[in-house]
Amino acid sequence: MANNLNAIEFIDVSLAFGERVILNRVSFEVHFGEAKVVMGGSGMGKSTLLRLVLGLLKPDSGRILVEGEDITDYTEEQMMSVRRKIGMVFQEGALFDSLSVYDNVAYRLREQHLPESEIEPYVIRMLRFVDLEDVVDKMPNELSGGMRRRVGIARALVGNPKIILYDEPTAGLDPITARTICELALKLRDLEDVSSIFVTHRLQDIDVLSREYVLRDDKGNLVFEQEGDRLCLINTKFIMLKDGDIIFSGTDEKMRLSDNAYIKRFLAG
Amino acid sequence: MNLITRGIYQIQELTLLTWRVLRSVYRPPYYLREIVHQMDVSGFGSLPIILLTGFFTGAVLALNTGNTLQRFGVQNVSGQLVATSLIRELGPVLTCLMLAGRVGSGIAAELGSMLVSEQIDAMRALGTDPIKKLVIPRIVALVTMAPALTIICDMVGTLGGLLTAMTFQGQASSVYLASAQEAVDFNEIIGGLIKPTVFGFIIAILGCYKGLSTTGGTVGVGRSTTQAMVSASILIIAVDFLLQKLILSVLLQR
Ligand SMILES: Nc1ncnc2c1ncn2[C@@H]1O[C@H](COP(=O)(O)OP(=O)(O)OP(=O)(O)O)[C@@H](O)[C@H]1O
Ligand SMILES: [Mg+2]
Q: ipTM, 2 decimals?
C-alpha cells in the first residue's frame, strides 16, 4: 500500500529492547516537503526512531516505508541505496575521529569516487553554509561541541538528500548557533522541499519551526517571516512520544491548546 | 549454563561475521588504500617488537641448548636446533602472540570506540559497509603481514643464536651457519608459514568481532580490548597444536 504522498511512513511499528518496550505500535507519516518535529523526554526512543528510518535497527513488527518503498525486510546491501537519499545528523555528531573536518564532509563524495576537483569546491561550499570555512584542516577533537555538530550537519547535507533526520541538532548550543541551525532547517524545508524529522526538546526550536518561514524576495535575498496575516504554515507537524506511544500528533496550534497534562508541562518549559 | 549459552552465541556470531567477510571479500568496492594503510600500521609498525622478540628468543635458545649439546659432544648442531625450533614453532607462535597483543587489541579498541561513538552507524548511514571498509582491510593486512613478520622473526632469531654461539660458546660462525642451513627444508618452511597465516586471520577476526560487539560505553571498550587479546592468544596456542599435528602428518609425513 505504497502511498506516494509520504517521504517516510511508519505502520504499527513496535520495538523492544529485552523487556523494555521503546515503541508500541507507532504509526505516523511524513509528507514530502514536510518537517516532522518529534518531541519527548529523554530515553523515550527518539534516536531509536531515526535509526529505524535508516535501517540501522530493525523493528520487531510493523512496516517502515521510505518514499513508498517498504524497507522493513531490506538487507544491509539493499539499504545502501535507500540511505543515499537520507542525510542524518547524529546526536553527538559522530564525526570520524581519524579524518579531518574536510575529509569528514567529503566522505560521501569520496565513496562515490568523484574527482577531487569536484569534491573540493563542494566541500568548501558546505562548510561555508554552516559557517565553518576556517576549520577545514582541523581534526574533530580540536573542535568545540557546537562546531562538531555543525560539521555533522554539513556532512549530512552532502549529496543533497531529499530526506534529512536531525537528532537534537541544537541541544547544548548557545542561542545564536542554535538559531542558525534552525534557520538552516527552515531554508531546506521551504526552499529545497526537503522532508525531515527534527528531534528536539527545545521550546525555542519549536517556536522557530512552527512560526517562521523563509522565502526569497525579488532580488533573490533570503527573508525570514513570521506566519500570520500572509500565510499559515502547514508544512510542519508535531509528534510527542511518551512511554512507547504517540500521545500527540498534529499542528502546533492544536498542540498548544492541548489539555494533556504532560504536554502542558512540556510546553511550559 | 549461562556461560555455555554465551559461548555458543559468541561462536555463532563469529561464524556469521566470518561468513559475511568471505561473502563480500570478492565484491567491489575494494578499499586498496585502506589495506595498504593497515599493512603499514600493523605490519611495518610491529617490526621493532618482532625484531627484538626474535633476536632474544634465538639467543636464549642457543644459550640453553648449548650446554646440553656440549655434554653429548654435538654442539656443532646448535644452529640446526635453533633454526628448526624457530621455523617450526617459536617464530610463528611468538610473532603472532606479539601481534595479538599489539594489533589484535588495537583493532578491538579502535572499532570499539568507533562503535560507542556512533561512528560505525554514521559510516553505514553514509552508505559504506563497515565489513568492507574496516574488517576486510584488517584481515587482509594481518593474513599477509603475519607470515612476512614470521620470516623476519625466524631470520633474526637464527642470527641471535649465532651471536650467542660465537661469543659464549666459542663456536665458529661457519659451523653454526652450515648447521642452520640443514634446517632450511621446503616443507618445514611451508608448514611454518601456514601457521602465521591462520593465526593472522584469528587475530584480525577476533579483534574485529570483539570491537564491533562492544557494549557498555568506554568501559566496554576496555573489556573488548582485553578479551580480543586473551581469546586470540589462547586460540593461537590451541590451534597451533592442531595445525602442528596436521602439518606433521601431511607435509612432513611423520
Ligand atoms: N542498543 C540498545 N540496547 C538496549 N537498550 C537500548 C539500546 N539503544 C537504546 N536503548 C534504550 O532505548 C531507550 C531509548 O533510547 P533513545 O536513544 O532512542 O532515547 P532518546 O529519546 O533519543 O533519548 P535522548 O533524548 O536522551 O537522546 C533508552 O531507554 C535506552 O536505554
Ligand atoms: Mg537521543
A: 0.90
- The pTM for the full model equals 0.90
Contacts of A91 in chain B (CB under 8 A): 118
The distance of A54 to chain B (nearest Cα, Å) reads 7
Distances, alpha carbon A107 to alpha carbons A80, A111, A112, A157, A241, in Å: 15, 6, 9, 12, 33
Instruction: Determine the pLDDT at residue A73.
Output: 94
Cell numbers that stand for A83 in this block: 540511505
Domain boundaries, chain B: 30-250
Q: Which of A152, A84, A82 is nearest to A112 (CA)?
A: A84
Q: Which three cell numbers stand for residue B40?
A: 603499514
How far, in Å, is the centroid of ligand 1 from the Cα of A7?
A: 24
Render pLDDT for B125-171 as a digit per residue (tens, 0 to 9): 999 999 999 999 999 999 999 999 999 999 999 999 999 999 998 88
Nearest-CA residue for ligand 1 atom 26 is A42
Residue in B closest to A76 by C-alpha: B129
Residue-wise burial string across B129-145, b where 16 or more C-beta atoms lie within 10 A, e elsewhere: bbbbbbbbbbbbbbbbb
Q: For A4-20, how does the pLDDT look when each residue is reduced to its tens digit (9 = 90+)?
A: 678 999 999 999 998 99
> What distance lies between CA B125 and its chain's CA centroid?
34
Q: Cell digits for A13?
A: 511499528
CB contact under 8 A, A54 and B125: yes
